[in-house]
Structure formats: structure tokens, C-alpha cells
Design a protein that fits this description.
This protein has 397 residues and is an alpha+beta fold. The protein has a single domain, classed as Orthogonal Bundle (Cytochrome p450). The protein has 15 helices and 11 strands. A hairpin with a 7-residue loop joins β1 and β2.
């Protein structure tokens, strides 16, 4: 991955977000030339891009805090994302068992059935929009069933989620107004759902939260709302973006696609390596809590920081032959799910969904490629690909 000469991370207005569709040269330019970049343009604040530095920051919330990091329409800090230790620990003790590897594996047969039903619709067809017809409905359906929310309202939930993550506005003020309006809809949605569970408890996550305690005290209505707000945003977006980026890569690399299809026993390696090289969640925000030196640069309290997970995951200093996609890479200590105490709560759910989705799709659609001349558009921040047209034939056939 040679650095492209025209990419200058220190130029005014540089932003890695502008390279979401083809980001690796920008990642390398950052790592090689300014691994700790303080900038007034682009993302602003400080961008940290080398694996060692990113991992250290993730593991030390006493220096790099998750509190007050983003304003995405919420009225209070989202739980547990925007709560640091020690308070963070009590919420993870409550929620980690719900999303444990064992519990997620128990859900896998049902998720496989859902994935198979969606992929069955493609039989006999010439192609599909993978994003709209598979990558979006599958994880969204799984998530809504976990929460006990009505499936017929899925388009509404996706619209609200996109209003938070991808607001359709040309300026920051307009985008924030859309986020705040979408946030109010999220709170109203869950207030309605919680009222329904109080009146008629169900076997779902919402009813469970109404009965659970943290350190001997019941969760408050506000705490439940703040957990649900985060779950909705994450549950309806990150697995979809992962499936999009995986399918887009495999469609453009037929040798890799054939390997994934013909050797289903390496599916976990396929997932881990594509999480590393395509890292759907490009970055996570932090705020400096106390003076710290990292990468030879001193950061002061109050500075905004972006930990560039995707650049860390392709750092040659941490991964031999980092630019090579190796489905049998061992070990593969990527940080696509973050790290440290704030490591992604839903990582076991995501891995299970990705495994089930790719397996069932490949059983029914072993051959696919992009239509000739297709230029894919990746959203920045979380790299969703919409639309994602696939033809069910080899390239050029």
C-alpha cells in the first residue's frame, strides 16, 4: 500500500472522511507522515492512526474519555457508550450476559433461517440490490425481534436511524436539527413500547430491562431509554454496513469470493480479515481527560480526539503484509470492534449474524459480481454501500 503522493494529511481541510470509498492510501499517509495529527480542518481536533497508539488510547479511558464525545440527538449520555469506568462497569455487568457468545450462538439457527428466506428470493434471478434486499433487512429484523418491536415498522426505524447517522443536510446546523428531530422520535418510540410492556409484559429485551436491577436498584425509565437509543442506532446500522463492505469486496475480487464460497470452514477467518481490511466503523471519538503524551505529541484536557480504527487495522507495524487480504491470518487482533472497557457490546451478535448471513447467501448465490462500470458510493464514518447492485454471474460473463 504505497502512499499516494497527492494525499497530504497536513493540508488545510484534509479529512479522511472524504476517502471512505477508497481509504487505504489516506490511512497510510496519516500513519507514515503524521500519526498524531492536530488539525483545525477536516474532522478537527486530533486524529490518531497507528495501531499501537489507538489500542493504548482505547484501553485507557482515564486519559481518553467516552463521555460527552458526540451529539447525535440524545438528551443524556447513551448507556454504556458514553459512560466511563467505574460507572461503566455496572452497566456492562448487566448487559454483557444478554449479548454473550453463548446466547448469541443459541440464536444462530433462527438467524440462519431468516437469512435463508431472504436469499431464497434470489433463486432464478439475475441479480439484486444486496444492500436493500439483504444487508439491511436481515440484521434489522433480528434486532427488532430481540427488542420485541413490530417488524412492520422497520422502514420507520431505518428512517429514524439514518436521520441520526446520515442526516440529509448540506450544513452542520441542518444536520444537527435533523438528528435532534430523529432523537425525539426515538424517545417517543421507546416510551410507547415501554408503556405497552408495563401493561402487558413479553418475553423480550424491553420487558427484561423493566425488571432488572443495577447494584440493587431497578433501572430508571431514563436509563432504559438511554440504553435503547444506543441499541437502535447500533443494531440497525453496523452489521448492515459490514455486510455491504464484505459483499462489495468479494464481488470485486472473484478469487477471494470463490475461496469464501468453496471453503465454508474458513468463514470465521473471512469475517475477521474483512473486518480488519474493510473496517466498517472507521473511527470512534474520545475527549482528553488529563494531560497525556502519545506518539510523541502532548494532548491537553478537553481536546477532541478521533481514534482511527480503520487505519490502525491496516498498520504494517502491527500486521505483517497488512495490505494482503489473508483469510487464514492468525492471529488477527484487529480493533474493528474497538477495545478496552468500551469494546463493542454487540460483537458476538455481529459475528454470529455475519457468519449466518454469508453462509446462507453463498449457499444460494455462489457467483456474483458488480455490473460493468459500477461506481460504488460508501458513506463516511460507518461505511454503508447504497445501492449495492450485484449480478449473479462471473465478471464479464
Amino acid at each position: 500500500m504505497a502512499t499516494t503522493p497527492e494525499i497530504d494529511p497536513e493540508a488545510p481541510g484534509f479529512s479522511v472522511m472524504d476517502f471512505a470509498s477508497s481509504p487505504h492510501a489516506a490511512y497510510q499517509a496519516l500513519r507514515d507522515r503524521c500519526p498524531v495529527l492536530r488539525s483545525q480542518g477536516g474532522l478537527g481536533g486530533v486524529t490518531i492512526s497507528r495501531y499501537e497508539d489507538v489500542l493504548w488510547a482505547l484501553r485507557h479511558p482515564e486519559y481518553f474519555s467516552s463521555e460527552s464525545t458526540v451529539a447525535i440527538g440524545q438528551q443524556r449520555p447513551l448507556i454504556p457508550l458514553m459512560v466511563d469506568p467505574p460507572a461503566h462497569v455496572k452497566y456492562r455487568k448487566l448487559l454483557d450476559p444478554v449479548f454473550s457468545r453463548k446466547r448469541m450462538l443459541a440464536l444462530e439457527p433462527e438467524v440462519r433461517r431468516l437469512a435463508g428466506d431472504l436469499a431464497d428470493r434470489f433463486k432464478g434471478g439475475d441479480g439484486c440490490d444486496f444492500h436493500a434486499e439483504f444487508a439491511e433487512p436481515l440484521p434489522s429484523t433480528v434486532f427488532l425481534r430481540l427488542l420485541g418491536l413490530p417488524l412492520e415498522r422497520l422502514p420507520e426505524f431505518v428512517e429514524i436511524k439514518d436521520g441520526i447517522i446520515r442526516p440529509s443536510a448540506d450544513d452542520m446546523a441542518g444536520a444537527q436539527a435533523i438528528r435532534e428531530a430523529s432523537g425525539r422520535r426515538i424517545y417517543a418510540l421507546f416510551e410507547e413500547a415501554l408503556d405497552a410492556r408495563v401493561a402487558d409484559p413479553q418475553q423480550d429485551l424491553l420487558s427484561w430491562m423493566l425488571d432488572e436491577e443495577v447494584e440493587g436498584e431497578r433501572l430508571t425509565r431514563e436509563q432504559i431509554l438511554d440504553i435503547c437509543y444506543l441499541l437502535l442506532i447500533a443494531g440497525l446500522d453496523t452489521v448492515t454496513a459490514s455486510l455491504d463492505t464484505f459483499a462489495a469486496y468479494l464481488a470485486q475480487h472473484p478469487d477471494r469470493r470463490r475461496m469464501a464460497v468453496e471453503r465454508p470452514e474458513i468463514i470465521d477467518g473471512v469475517i475477521e480479515e474483512l473486518l480488519r481490511t474493510e473496517t466498517p466503523v472507521m473511527m470512534v471519538p474520545r475527549v482528553v481527560k488529563q494531560t497525556v503524551e502519545i506518539g510523541g505529541v502532548t494532548l491537553e484536557p478537553g481536546e477532541s480526539v478521533v481514534l482511527l480504527l480503520a487505519a490502525a487495522d491496516t498498520d504494517e507495524r502491527a500486521f505483517p503484509d497488512a495490505g494482503v487480504v489473508d483469510f487464514e491470518r492468525r492471529p488477527n487482533r484487529h480493533v474493528a470492534f474497538g477495545g478496552g472497557p468500551h469494546r463493542c457490546l454487540g460483537s458476538h451478535l455481529a459475528r454470529m449474524e455475519l457468519r449466518a448471513a454469508l453462509d446462507e447467501f453463498h449457499r444460494r448465490v455462489p457467483v456474483y459480481s458488480l455490473p460493468q462500470g459500477t461506481e460504488l458510493s460508501y458513506s463516511a464514518g460507518i461505511r454503508q454501500v447504497e445501492p449495492l447492485p450485484l449480478l449473479f454471474r462471473e465478471p464479464g460473463a
